């Protein structure tokens, strides 16, 4: 709290130097981990994005549902796209549309966008979380590595019915 | 040796209105005193509002109790975020800036009218936003108010008023320092605490300007004067305000850490250069961290995210790790010089644990570093963020930094502001002794409950998670830990507010007679000036214990960080 002496620019002590070096090496390690995982890791944040209007995206979702629908659950279509194809998921207050039926070990290009507010794509219990923003077609290339029924929770606040916005993914 | 008493006479003929503090021998400008009191009172008022909301929303998320309905839950969550993250902390920081730019520099307040204007704008903005959120159903939009969620125009106007008021106050900080320098009120460099506050103030200017860039267009958009507002752009600007605002807290909190350490254990910084470089690292790199909130957003490249989220090369993290060494090391050296020299940790065993300033400092540093810092760096890692984004791990992280860290430190500092600035005797001293441990302990449980729930995928800002596909049994347990922690932390908060109100509302005004509140009649602040170079550099007094502590910290950091990569590797492939 008090004024320092006139000359305070002094060499560091031995312990300060030791800690500074170790801490710096740790920081370099933290930095290197991200590009390493980017090139060698199997789980990376998708970056592929396109500008899209609500109408364009809604049309693509409808086309996708008509083409690959295999069933119906409480009025929401269940859609089973072929491996390798483009898959469309629409977020709107307060619904994920449609229900996706995928195959374990196959690759899909999952397009996500919102019709109204910002939403949060949270796949549980796999625990993959992505931000969904209107006007942006966010493309995630995914490979389901486990089978079963998965829940899509909305984890971005989207008005009072937010907690009721729950969707489903089935992996066979 | 540092001279504490003023070395330069006050300018002849200057209309200074001041008193000399008998305990610290510092001069206190009366404008400063009134400004500090006003800002501190508003800080406590907004803390009370945010605290009531905290209790109610915690009792709702604790699934076994689930108190509020969805409407009130989301409404009070909005209120809680604004009052705590912005109002309470910024009011307190403004009090700190007035203090640092005048009292610690032996200087006068050069722009009191401007400072009052800033205070009034902040007060109007702060109270108005509470009113809007409580009475306008449309304005339940959370602290973040993500476009295209549209609140009432007055909501955005309150933000703008508050931010401009804060900006004006920050400007008076710079004016005060410039005038003090010109009038030669202090010699040489700024004291380290003021240097830290200066770092906070510079970051605040940048932060508030970005806040304006985000909220002014939102205000126009809410009035239909602006047709389209891209939500991605809003997020970018908003977090240029929202995250750096927490970095302002960080810099201010570290400055307060140095102050508390000096006031309770009589430290001198072991190396001014080391500590100041750490602040400089904050200044240059910490604002890149606004990218933390955009890591799983569409439209941004890997390179942009990786460079920004890592503060270029974790250089701001390096700054924090430097302070994490330098403050306990200074305490260790000062304690050893006093003769507490037994073993590695004799200095720590003999620390003034009953003194609220030390208890608060200790809890704040532990919670901020070991929980807040470690989890923050981990979830701020580009790929790992996919596991954490918008889950309860996020609030788990920042309740450790902002509540366990900043708020605990600010609360502890308040206990010294009451006798020294309010000039009232501190009441309920035995409560004050325990308060940092109760509040800090509760916050630890809150954070751990949230982090462990978030690890299981529980979403933040969600009224009811029961039908959302998470494992019910363990989630019930972790949410109960969170709820019990919240009750304890709120108890600590009630203790704090009761102590403050009992002290300032009752009893006569009286000059403080001593610095320590319960730790005896010593004056560590003045004693610190007697600490000699020979004592500080004596081989027996070197901070060996601190070195062991920081290496233990690094091991814990590595374990937590690497186990998160392991978790990430187990999930679905995604690119």
What does this structure look like?
The complex is a heterodimer of chains A (about 170) and B (about 575). Chain A has a single domain, classed as Cupredoxins -  blue copper proteins (Immunoglobulin-like), CATH 2.60.40. Helices cover about 25% and strands about 40% of the residues of chain A. Chain A has 2 helices and 12 strands. Chain A has helices spanning about 15-40, 55-70, and strands at about 50, 70-75, 75-80, 85-90, 95, 100, 110-115, 120-125, 130, 135-145, 150-155, 165-170. Chain A has a 7-stranded mixed beta sheet with strand order 2-3-6-12-11-8-9. In chain A, a hairpin with a 2-residue loop joins strand 4 and strand 5 (about 95). The model of chain A has no long low-confidence stretch (mean pLDDT about 95). Chain B is mainly alpha-helical and about 575 residues long. Chain B has one domain: Cytochrome c oxidase-like, subunit I domain (Cytochrome C Oxidase, Chain A). Helix content of chain B is about 70%, strand content about 0%. Chain B has a two-stranded antiparallel ribbon. In chain B, strand 1 (about 20) and strand 2 (about 25-30) form a beta hairpin. Chain B is globular and about 60 Å long. The interface between A and B is large, with 78 and 108 residues. Strand 10 (about 135-145) of chain A pairs antiparallel with strand 3 of chain B, so a sheet runs across the interface.
């Amino acid at each position: 709290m008090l004024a320092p002496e006139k000359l305070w620019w002094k060499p560091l002590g031995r312990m300060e130097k030791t800690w500074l070096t170790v801490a710096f090496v740790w920081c370099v390690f933290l930095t290197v981990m991200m590009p390493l995982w980017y090139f060698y890791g199997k789980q990376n944040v998708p970056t592929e994005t396109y500008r899209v209007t609500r109408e364009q995206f809604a049309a693509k979702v409808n086309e996708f549902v008509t083409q690959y629908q295999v069933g119906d659950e409480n009025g929401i279509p269940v859609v089973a796209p072929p491996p390798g194809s483009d898959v469309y998921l629409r977020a709107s207050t307060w619904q994920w549309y449609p229900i996706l039926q995928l195959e374990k070990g196959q690759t899909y290009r999952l397009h996500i966008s919102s019709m109204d507010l910002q939403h949060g794509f949270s796949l549980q219990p796999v625990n993959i979380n992505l931000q969904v923003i209107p006007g942006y077609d966010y493309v995630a290339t995914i490979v389901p590595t486990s089978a079963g029924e998965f829940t899509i929770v909305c984890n971005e606040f989207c008005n009072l019915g937010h907690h009721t916005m729950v969707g489903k993914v089935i992996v066979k | 040796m540092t001279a504490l008493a003023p070395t330069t006479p006050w300018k002849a003929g200057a209309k200074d209105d001041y008193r000399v503090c008998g305990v610290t021998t510092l001069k206190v400008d009366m404008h400063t005193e009134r400004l500090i009191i006003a800002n501190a009172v508003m800080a406590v008022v907004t803390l009370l509002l945010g605290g009531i909301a905290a209790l109610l929303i915690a009792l709702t998320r604790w699934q076994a109790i689930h108190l509020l309905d969805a409407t009130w839950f989301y409404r009070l969550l909005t209120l809680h975020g604004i009052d705590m993250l912005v109002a309470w902390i910024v009011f307190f920081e403004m009090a700190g800036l007035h203090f640092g730019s005048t009292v610690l520099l032996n200087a006068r307040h050069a722009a009191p009218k401007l400072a009052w204007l800033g205070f009034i704008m902040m007060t109007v903005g702060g109270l108005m936003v509470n009113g809007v959120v409580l009475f306008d159903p449309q304005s339940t939009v959370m602290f973040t108010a993500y476009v295209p969620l549209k609140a009432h125009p007055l909501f955005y106007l309150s933000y703008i008023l508050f931010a401009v008021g804060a900006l004006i106050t920050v400007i008076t900080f710079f004016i005060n320092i410039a005038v003090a320098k010109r009038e030669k009120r202090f010699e040489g460099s700024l004291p380290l605490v003021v240097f830290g506050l200066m770092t906070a103030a510079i970051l605040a200017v940048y932060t508030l300007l970005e806040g304006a860039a985000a909220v002014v267009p939102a205000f126009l958009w809410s009035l239909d004067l602006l047709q389209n507002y891209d939500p991605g752009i809003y997020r970018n600007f908003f977090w240029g305000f929202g995250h750096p605002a927490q970095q302002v807290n960080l810099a201010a909190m570290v400055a307060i850490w140095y102050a508390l350490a000096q006031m309770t254990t009589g430290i001198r910084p072991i190396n001014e250069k080391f500590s100041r470089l750490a602040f400089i690292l904050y200044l240059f790199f910490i604002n890149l961290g606004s990218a933390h909130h955009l890591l799983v957003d569409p439209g941004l490249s890997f390179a942009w995210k990786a460079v920004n989220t890592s503060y270029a090369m974790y250089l701001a993290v390096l700054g924090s790790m430097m302070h994490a060494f330098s403050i306990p090391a200074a305490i260790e050296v000062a304690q050893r010089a006093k003769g507490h020299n037994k073993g590695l940790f004799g200095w720590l065993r003999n620390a003034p644990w009953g003194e609220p300033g030390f208890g608060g400092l200790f809890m704040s540093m532990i919670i901020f570093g070991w929980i807040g810092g470690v989890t923050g760096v981990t979830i701020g890692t580009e790929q790992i963020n996919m596991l954490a984004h918008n889950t309860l791990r996020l609030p788990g992280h920042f309740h450790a930094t902002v509540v366990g860290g900043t708020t605990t430190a600010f609360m502890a500092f308040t206990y010294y502001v009451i006798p020294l600035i309010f000039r009232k005797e501190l009441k309920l001293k035995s409560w004050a002794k325990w308060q940092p441990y109760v509040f800090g302990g509760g916050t630890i449980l809150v954070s751990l409950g949230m982090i462990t729930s978030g690890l299981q995928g529980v979403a933040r800002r969600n009224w009811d998670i029961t039908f959302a596909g998470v494992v019910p049994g363990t989630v019930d347990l972790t949410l109960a830990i969170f709820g019990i922690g919240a009750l304890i932390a709120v108890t600590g908060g009630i203790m704090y507010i009761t102590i403050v109100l009992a002290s300032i509302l009752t009893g006569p005004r009286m000059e403080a007679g001593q610095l320590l509140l319960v730790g005896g009649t010593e004056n560590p602040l003045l004693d610190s000036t007697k600490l000699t170079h020979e004592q500080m550099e004596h081989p027996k007094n070197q901070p060996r214990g601190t070195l062991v502590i920081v290496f233990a910290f690094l091991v814990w950091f590595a374990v937590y960080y690497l186990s998160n990569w392991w978790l990430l590797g187990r999930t679905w492939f995604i690119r």
